[in-house]
Design brief:
This protein is mostly helical. The chain is built from seven helices and no strands. Helix 2 runs antiparallel to helix 3 and helix 4 runs parallel beside helix 7.
Length: 123
């Protein structure tokens, strides 16, 4: 990402927060990790770093698992922030394995169906 846009990871983190991809808590955690890794003194040129790091991965997983988002919803989040990307492009950007987001949606859907059925049985 740094090579592609020619800006520091610190600037990418700041922009991710400004666009709403990172909340204040996750931004601070990312900044701490950034500093801990020593990148304030110099960043590696090929740094993909924190956008795939736990922060973005957990945000995507949270939207899928807890809020019931599907692949289209994830694409809409990026599109609404000026990044009209396909799921494959999002996976590449965040360094997910190919098909990983679809698999997360599939697993979360099965889990929600199981929970719904359990609730129906309890009633």
């Amino acid at each position: 990402l740094k090579k592609k846009w020619g800006v520091s990871v610190a600037a990418l983190l700041y922009r991710a927060r400004a666009l709403g991809f990172l909340d204040e808590r996750n931004y601070k955690l990312s900044a701490i990790e950034y500093s801990r890794l020593g990148y304030k003194r110099g960043e590696p040129d090929d740094l993909i770093f924190i956008l795939r790091n736990r922060v973005m991965e957990q945000i995507i997983k949270l939207y899928i698992e807890k809020r019931g988002f599907d692949s289209q919803d994830i694409m809409d989040i990026f599109r609404l922030r000026g990044l009209p990307l396909t799921i494959k492009q999002i996976e590449n950007l965040l360094n997910f394995d190919e098909g990983e987001i679809f698999e997360l949606v599939k697993v979360a859907s099965k889990s929600r169906l199981t929970t719904t059925r359990k609730l129906e049985i309890i009633r």
